[in-house]
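We emphasize that the prediction below concerns an isolated chain of 92 residues; any contacts that depend on oligomerization or on bound cofactors are therefore not represented. The input was used exactly as deposited, without trimming of termini.
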Amino acid sequence: MTLKRWKLIISGRVQGVYYRASAQAQANELGIVGYTRNLPDGNVEIIAEGSDDQLKKLESWCREGPPAASVNSVEIEKQDVTGEFTRFGIRH
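Result of the prediction step, given as a token string:
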């Protein structure tokens, strides 16, 4: 399996609606490693490493998010894989 790394920026009503915890659960279910965190501008950032298929599934989930979220957009930046992660966590 060839690993890829994506940085996703999710905008909309995505803070205070369990977006990060739900993203962590989804990433763990998909076998993706990395982290998610709230950004000062109200967006959520996800750094994710996994296969192309895993990352596409995560992106699809991110466009919906948890029930209380209202996602306006998901921006993706493809980055070089670092292999620094062993699990998917929440950063504060």
